[in-house]
Specification:
single chain, about 240 residues, alpha/beta, Rossmann fold, eight-stranded mixed beta sheet, 7 helices, about 35% helix, globular
Length: about 240
């Protein structure tokens, strides 16, 4: 759970333990983390769009992150780290749960990807800065959100790109993401705590306080026949990119 001597431990221990208990099933697309496998391509499409907009020439490259470093904060078992590595990045994944990191490292080795995984709080690790920082579905599990975002911003290189996604705090998300999703087993019970969700406006203000400006924002929505997709509808979940002011 990070260095006990560090003053701002942001990830709640019970949150890390909850996801650690799911680590061994993380890569099973039909297991308890099935919802992550379904949303991951949608997130990755936004990340790729952000990369193409941020770096000249990226749009025409199969490996637009070649020569660049990437950090995924709250990496779980590596569902974002591995695609970033395939885009050419030198990838580091950090997670508060050591079990997740162990599962991630084992999976990366099994598919022949060289990814550095580290257990702990991102603010307590001396890992420098990165060209791309991703942090998907993490901030809603964080107790001290301003402190966490300061730690995130400190890991971003001066000309770097940050991508974050998180559930919105709306009436719709309370019913669908917490109530219905857990009731039908779409996500494991205890995954979401609605009162910890952050609205896009709140997150933009928090990022501004950390010295970052939002450059793009999309909703992650669902509808019959189309499934999960990028949308202007942010009622359930949204994803954004940001850079230093």
């Amino acid at each position: 759970m990070g260095n006990a001597n560090v003053s701002s431990v942001t990830i709640r221990p019970e949150e890390a333990e909850f996801f650690a208990s799911l680590a061994r099933d993380w890569w099973n697309p039909k297991g308890p983390m099935a919802s992550l496998h379904q949303v991951n391509p949608v997130r990755l499409a936004f990340i790729r769009d952000g990369i193409d907009a941020h770096w000249p020439g990226a749009a025409t490259s199969a490996r637009p992150l070649a020569g660049k470093s990437a950090l995924d904060i709250g990496c779980g078992a590596g569902l974002v780290c591995e695609p970033l590595a395939r885009l050419g990045a030198s990838v580091t994944g950090v997670d508060a749960a050591a079990e997740n990191v162990a599962a991630a490292a084992a999976h990366a080795e099994g598919v022949g990807l060289d990814i550095r995984y580290m257990a702990g709080e991102v603010g307590a690790l001396d890992i420098g800065t990165f060209d791309l920082v991703t942090c998907v579905e993490v901030i809603e599990h964080v107790a001290d959100k301003p402190a966490f975002l300061r730690d995130v911003a400190a890991r971003l290189a001066p000309d770097g790109l940050l991508v974050m996604s998180t559930p919105n705090r709306t009436a719709a998300s309370r019913v669908l993401l917490v109530g219905a999703a857990e009731a039908v087993g779409y996500v494991p019970k205890g995954t979401h705590h609605w009162e910890d969700f952050v609205t896009p406006e709140e997150l933009e203000a928090l990022l501004s306080e950390a010295g970052l400006a939002v450059t793009a924002r999309r909703g992650i929505a669902w509808r019959p026949g189309k499934g999960l997709h990028l949308s202007e509808d942010m009622a359930l979940n949204y994803i954004l990119s940001a850079r230093r002011v």
